Amino acid sequence: MLNLRTQMNKPQERGDLEAWMRICRRLRADVGDDVFSSWFGRLELDSLAEATASLSVPTKFLKSWIQSHYAEKLLLALAAEFPFVKGLSIAVRSSNRALSPVVIGRDAVEGPACAEGAQADAPLTTPEAAGASAKFLVQKPRESNLAGKPQSEAGEADIIAGSPLDGRLTFSNFSVGRSNQLAYAAAQRVAAAAPDEPLLYNPLYLHASVGLGKTHLLQAVARAARDARRRVIYLTAERFMYGFVSALKAQTAIAFKEKLRGIDILIIDDIQFLQGKSIQQEFCHTLNALIDGHRQIVIAADRPPGDLDTLDERVRSRLAGGLCVEIGGLDESLRVKILEGRVAAARLAHPNFDVPPAVTAYVASAIQTNGRDLDGAVNRLLAHASLNGAPLGIETAELAIRDLVRTHEPKRIKIEDIQKLVATHFNVSRADILSSRRTANVVRPRQIAMYLSKSLTLRSLPEIGRRFGGRDHTTVLHAVRKIDALAAKDGTLSEEIELLKRMLME
Fold first, then answer.
1. How far apart are CA 353 and CA 383, in angstroms?
2. Domain contains 428
3. Distance between CA atoms of 58 and 172, rounded to whole angstroms?
4. Range of 362's domain?
5. Are 297 and 329 in contact (CB under 8 A)?
6. Same domain flag for 304 and 424
7. If residue 420 lies in a helix (H) or strand (E), which one and from where to where?
8. What is the tens place of the pLDDT at every residue in 146-198?
């Protein structure tokens, strides 16, 4: 549907309005309905003067995209109706222009008017009509669904539109230790920043293994920012993908884009799950628009930006350009602190629940994985205490948490670390290993590095090939088989490989 607004009643001005409608039909036929709705749906023609058509759009993103991709098509369509137009200018209009629209349905644009045949291609018949200063618009910008609401309500509306928040995940109940102190301080700084304060950490990128507090910090930022009456959206990568695909199907992609670009803070969790070329392109555009507009972005993932192999290189580069903070594993003192906090929270609902310090110390030493396992331990202790009615001791605790006690997880090894260690060990450079050189002193270390990458990481053969200078997966497979066969025959080589493995595992 097109919303046309005009304050003109003279016949020639109504003729100009019809000419603009013909331009819209011409553009729609040229680029298709979806592209027209996405990029031209909110384009306004402000004036025609001195051989220049002055147009406007509501956002810098739309202006940049139209100028980069559709300026020539737009100028040709304008010149077909207004021959004197030799150039065009696109501006970003103010969002507070109060204008009253006259709504004209799509049938009015594409139905009877299109049946006029040759009239649709006819230029203005008089110089006076052609030179008249036109003032009409296509599709008045939609008022934000937050307009007219207090900022606190606006923040709530945006949160509801995103993924739900857990009321327990706040800064006040986040346990701080050496491994997460920097991430906690950075998240607090972002949440407490004033709207006009320069953004020091943008984007703020937090990465860690599961259960170490990434989601807790992200939701704490979202809640604190909302309480400060800032417009914030918290999304998981899955919710972002679902929202974008749904908007495309419903032909509301432009509203989806502007929703994200009209906020103060965008928070996205588990970015490693972001899939799809078009979705990643839209995410990259959103990052650029928000960063250029001095809006805060907070991202969390399970690995650093450089290790997100499934993401486009431009997205990884943008994410790496901010503050990247790794949340490390929980040391024993921090695990004790987390357990004490969880027990205190459980005691609010179960006043008789008591965990002796010796039991807390035992659980903290036995469970060395993550915070979620510590939550599970408290739930099991609570169940045993409430169902059995007996005081908790070490033996009871041992029985309660035995399914949570795991062997120490092996160190997560990165392909870059393998390349650096192998290069140093064989006295070549990492650049040599990634290069196309085929001399013997480079080929063997490269094959060993590929072999170790396949043995010590969970990366697929194609992923490993990409990390070794963009090689094919068959090259990696050949290297793995080659080194495997040589190590079976050559004891020295086998010992050398085992040494490298031990060095990488330490």
1. 10
2. yes
3. 39
4. 332-406
5. no
6. no
7. helix 415-425
8. 333 333 333 333 333 467 788 888 998 898 988 899 999 999 999 988 877 88
Q: Which residues carry a binding-site annotation for ATP?
A: 211, 213-215
> In the structure encoding, which two tokens stand for residue 52, read together?
């220049």
Neighbours of 268 (CB within 10 A): 25
CATH number at residue 281: 3.40.50.300
Domain count, the chain: 4
Binding residues: 211, 213-215
Q: Convert 97-142 into a string of H (helix), E (strand) and C (coil).
A: CCCCCEEECHHHHHCHHHHHHHHHHCCCCCHHHHHCCCCEEECCCC
Dist CA 223 CA 204 (whole Å): 16
Task: Tell the residue number behind the tokens 């009456």, with chain if given.
Answer: 229
Task: Kindly state whether residues 217 and 277 are assigned to the same domain.
Answer: yes
Structure tokens at 294: 């001095």
89: helix, coil or strand? Answer: strand
Torsion of CA 436, 437, 441, 443, to 10 degrees: 30
Instruction: Find, among 228, 291, 262, the residue nearest to 142 by Cα.
Output: 262
CATH code assigned at 459: 1.10.1750.10
| Residue 374 placed within a domain | yes
Q: Are residues 185 and 68 in the same domain?
A: no
In this prediction the pTM is: 0.52
Alpha helices in 43-97 (DSSP H): 60-69, 71-81
Residues 412-438: tens digit of each pLDDT: 788 999 999 999 889 999 989 999 888
Residue 116 belongs to a domain: no
User: Does residue 139 sit within a domain?
Assistant: no
| Boundary of a domain, candidates 73, 92, 111 | 92
